[in-house]
């Protein structure tokens, strides 16, 4: 059973593509969901976040995401500190979910925004990159998160450039067009995937 690593830049359309892939029967393991589980209310992960970032890191028992986001996307050292708390836990959660999906005989999609940044290529069989040029990434991120251009640019700058991810991909899914066009691209990529993997 093959494992696809799905990545791209922030707001390039990974979640949109992973929903379409669910529709084709793939099991999707999502790093953003796992990263929330890693610091859920009452968890050891959240305790560590409080130890490092202080009491303001929590609001109503939950991690104060806007506060932490504003800190870490403007300071690489703080980002590294948060990553070192959350990423090992995310890897553990995702490995369990992946194993369960494979045991059920499913093709698996690992949706991992930081796949290249964290050198996780070897944990998947092939990498699909959801690509949009950076100006569209900025535009969609500002719109989705109701964010200033400055805040959106800081988030984009905290990741490997989208052009670099595109260059390294096994499969590129272009999401520069409308949603209908994206659906067609995904359909084609899925057909080619099954041709490669089920023909022999
Ligand atoms: C900083 C946090 C609190 C901001 O929360 P917020 O709800 O605003 O954003 P959300 O978690 O939905 O992330 C949105 C996107 O931001 C990007 N992103 C998130 N964390 C990081 C990071 N540490 N470095 C680079 N990009 C990141 C990803 O593309 C992600 O898909 C949160 O992103 C977080 O806990 N990040 C650390 C864990 C992490 O690296 N998650 C990403 C994949 S494991
Ligand atoms: N083809 C498209 N045309 C217009 N808007 C789109 C298109 N594809 C996605 N979007 C919108 O762009 C935003 C980003 O898409 P999505 O949330 O799927 O990205 P993502 O890569 O999962 O983001 P993140 O890295 O933050 O998890 C969303 O608001 C989504 O509705």
From TrEMBL:
Assigned keywords, A-Z: ATP-binding, Coenzyme A biosynthesis, Cytoplasm, Kinase, Nucleotide-binding, Transferase
Pathway listed: Cofactor biosynthesis; coenzyme A biosynthesis; CoA from (R)-pantothenate: step 5/5
PROSITE patterns membership: DPCK
Binding site for ATP: 11-16
Catalysed transformations (reactions): 3'-dephospho-CoA + ATP = ADP + CoA + H(+)
Coiled coil, from the record: none
Cellular compartments annotated: Cytoplasm
Enzyme Commission (EC) number: 2.7.1.24
Domain of life: Bacteria
Enzyme class: transferase
CDD domains linked: DPCK
Function: Catalyzes the phosphorylation of the 3'-hydroxyl group of dephosphocoenzyme A to form coenzyme A.
Family: Belongs to the CoaE family.
Protein name, per record: Dephospho-CoA kinase
Species this chain originates from: Macrococcus equipercicus
